[in-house]
Automatic annotation (TrEMBL):
EC number: 2.3.2.13
Keywords: Acyltransferase, Calcium, Metal-binding, Transferase
Catalysis performed (reactions): L-glutaminyl-[protein] + L-lysyl-[protein] = [protein]-L-lysyl-N(6)-5-L-glutamyl-[protein] + NH4(+)
This protein's name: protein-glutamine gamma-glutamyltransferase
UniProt binding sites for Ca(2+): N389, D391, E439, E444
Entry's cofactor comment: Binds 1 Ca(2+) ion per subunit.
Organism: Erythrocercus mccallii
Cofactor(s) recorded in Swiss-Prot or TrEMBL: Ca(2+)
Boundaries of every Transglutaminase-like domain copy: 260-352
InterPro entries listed in its UniProt record: Ig-like_fold, Ig_E-set, Papain-like_cys_pep_sf, Transglutaminase, Transglutaminase-like, Transglutaminase-like_sf, Transglutaminase_animal, Transglutaminase_AS
Gene designation per UniProt: Tgm3
Length: 687
């Protein structure tokens, strides 16, 4: 090889097409492991003679750690390691097809070539990713449609609200935009694992299990100055309200721009969405999962305890909690450590809830292991099992005496309507039956007992467990809250408390009712309303008591999560107490998007967004945020003049789509009275 640096043609377009990496922009070759790519370089005579290629990654490449490979030209692709096959030669250039093994370490590689005893000449760098299209890869996904959705798709839908009222919003994962890949590579190089032992860390990067766990720790800021700082206080000064984000790109870019300082602030869906972006970017098929009535079992006894005072106020006592919903991730890969039946979808959770191995990371837990109650299998299966299966115990707690009485327990409360986005459609799919057997079935209870047994809970005397005679005693009345009318921010809230006497003699009941604004984690923020009534129920009688909470009563108190918990603690004379509760999520008013005309690649198209102020006072500080991969660069922010009562604003802006296909435009509207009204629109872009 001449002393001059050989110039390399990386055949970016052709290689990207073959490797499903066309959506990345930039001048660097990005390919997937276990599959050949072609390069051409010049400055060689008679190249077939003793050319040696060197591919290396990480700080101290070595053959022992599989971060260094040297290979010469052979006639066939190697089954085991790296190989180079001669494609064609001309007088001064040579085309080579290079293949990496199915289990190669992923990341940025330096490639050089050496002829004979001369010193190696650098050909440049390329990035190697996981390959879900290749049957030898740990992340191989047989369905092409699923590969499209879980690796290539940049738009997602996240489900929220509560189990009685599921809502959803769009998210721009944006894993192929700008320098997101570079940011993902720097996330790996900033983990605690890398800082403690860079050589070993890089050598483990062939394994999706390892990287999934490391990245679940790095997406939250705890322990390692990771990407997003969590905040569940209801006060978000000094940062952005978690519900105001519409995509991961802005978060990852801010993290990098600030010199890798944690971005403020996130809650569960933000952690899950950012982890989806990072894992899809690296080639691991990943999706977000929402679990409704999700248990946070802090003490690992598969039980969550909730405490209420005599007025029915939900007390913050004990570390257990039940969230209206919780969002985590599933990633698809084999579990060679557990055996074939545990392969497939694995649960990863980047929300910092409990420590695992001394730091805030969670998973991968095999979804199959969760369903079968195999809580002893790696990693964090007990915690995930409890999130979807824990039993609920409701206690009346007297702070003066420290005494607690069990009001009732429920084994069917937790883990409802587990949801994810459909493949190729903007719909919800229910995956509850992949996490557990039918609620209340013998099989489901057997699995629960098996889990308790594995955790050594079944023989232990439990001093807080209700005595048998307490369980046998049945309540005299039953109660429930019914919604009457719409649940919308800006409108009065109408409910009915329905009480029924289950006995054949009359009952007198004193009812203490409270309503609190909460976060989606059911953490109380402000008391909105309280009332008490005394009622007499004739034998077997059912009575309804209307409750009205006016908009001005809750407007100042409600959080941006738009959630209210209403409880009625019923003290039955000479009988058991009965707790009636309901968590309510209010809807925001609607916002409308219209695309005016055809959307064509590299042509301007006008979009109109309309919002009607539904309340009888002016709204001000109106801001519209718009984003969408391949439709516009970054985020468009538009200020909108104040809107009088019932006035409609119409805002127009232009897009220049950069790629054909179905694309999604995400809109977020905020003002002083309504926070983060979100909607999205699918835009069909044609060439």
């Amino acid at each position: 090889i001449a002393a001059t640096q050989p110039s390399t043609n990386w055949h970016l377009k052709e290689n990207a097409r073959e490797h499903h990496t066309s959506k990345f922009s930039g001048e660097e070759l990005i390919v997937r492991r276990g599959q050949a790519f072609t390069i051409t370089f010049n400055g060689t005579e008679r190249p077939e003679q003793n050319l040696i290629f060197i591919a290396e990654t990480g700080p101290k490449p070595s053959k022992a750690t599989k971060t260094l490979a040297t290979f010469d030209i052979s006639s066939t692709v190697s089954k085991e390691g790296w190989s180079a096959v001669l494609q064609s030669t001309s007088s001064n250039s040579v085309s080579i097809s290079i293949s990496s093994p199915h289990n190669a370490v992923i990341g940025r590689y330096r490639l050089s070539v050496q002829k004979g005893s001369s010193s190696p000449a650098s050909l440049g760098t390329f990035v190697l990713l996981f390959n879900p299209w290749s049957s030898g890869d740990d992340v191989f996904m047989p369905s092409k449609a699923e590969c499209e959705e879980y690796v290539l798709e940049e738009f997602g839908i996240i489900f929220a609200g509560n189990k009685n009222h599921i809502s959803s919003f769009g998210w721009n994962f944006g894993q192929y935009q700008g320098d997101i890949l570079d940011i993902c590579l720097s996330i790996m190089d900033r983990s605690l694992y890398y800082r403690q032992d860079p050589v070993t860390d890089v050598s483990h990067r062939h394994d999706p299990r390892y990287l999934g766990r490391v990245l679940s720790a790095m997406v939250n800021a705890n322990d390692d100055q990771g990407v997003v700082l969590g905040n569940w206080s209801g006060k978000y000064e000094g940062g952005k309200n978690p519900s105001s984000w519409t995509g991961s790109g802005e978060i990852l870019q801010s993290w990098k721009k600030s010199g890798f300082k944690p971005v403020k602030y996130g809650q569960c869906w933000v952690f899950a969405a950012v982890l989806t972006t990072v894992l899809r970017c690296l080639g691991i098929p990943t999706r977000t999962i929402t679990n409704f009535s999700s248990a946070h079992d802090a003490d690992g006894n598969l039980r969550v305890d909730e405490f209420y005072d005599a007025d029915g106020n939900h007390l913050e006592k004990g570390a257990d909690s039940v969230w209206n919903f919780h969002v985590w991730n599933e990633s698809w890969f084999t579990r060679n450590d557990l055996g074939p039946s545990y392969s497939g979808w694995q649960v990863l959770d980047a929300t910092p809830q409990e420590q695992s191995g001394g730091i805030y990371q969670c998973g991968p837990a095999s979804r199959h292991a969760i369903k079968e109650g195999e809580v002893d299998l790696d990693f964090d299966s007990t915690f995930v099992f409890a999130e979807v299966n824990a039993d609920c115990m409701y206690w009346n707690y007297d702070s003066a005496t420290g005494k607690k009485n069990l009001i009732f327990s429920k084994s069917t409360e937790i883990g409802a309507s587990i949801s994810t986005k459909a493949v190729g459609r903007d719909d919800r799919v229910d995956v509850t039956s992949d996490y557990k057997y039918e609620e209340g079935s013998t099989k489901e209870r057997d699995v629960f007992k098996k889990a308790r047994k594995k955790l050594g809970l079944e023989d232990k005397f439990d001093p807080t467990a209700p005595k048998l005679e307490e369980i046998e005693q049945k309540p005299d009345i039953s109660g429930k809250f019914k919604v009457a009318g719409s649940l919308e921010v800006g409108k009065d809230l109408n409910l009915l408390l329905v009480l029924e006497n289950l006995r054949s003699d009359a009952k007198t009941v004193n009812v203490n009712m409270t309503a609190w604004s909460t976060l989606y984690t059911r953490r109380r923020v402000n008391q909105i309303w309280k009332d008490s009534i005394s009622v007499t129920l004739a034998p077997k009688e059912e009575k309804q008591f209307p409750i009205k909470i006016k908009y001005p009563e809750y407007q100042q108190q409600i959080t941006t999560d738009k959630t209210i918990q209403i409880t009625a603690l019923c003290h039955v004379e000479d009988g058991l107490q009965v707790l009636v509760k309901r968590n309510i999520t209010l809807d925001n008013p609607a916002i409308d998007i219209q695309v005016l005309g055809e959307a064509k690649v590299n042509k301007e198209v006008v979009v109109e967004v309309a919002f009607t102020n539904p309340i009888d006072t002016e709204v001000k500080d109106c801001v519209l945020q718009v984003e969408g991969s391949d439709l516009l660069q970054g985020i468009l922010e538009l200020r909108i003049p104040p809107l009088k009562a019932n006035e409609t604003s119409s805002t127009k802006f232009k897009l220049i789509p950069s790629e054909a296909g179905p694309k999604h435009l995400l809109v977020n509207f905020s003002c002083d009275k309504f926070a983060d009204i979100k909607t999205f629109k699918m835009v069909k872009v044609i060439n």
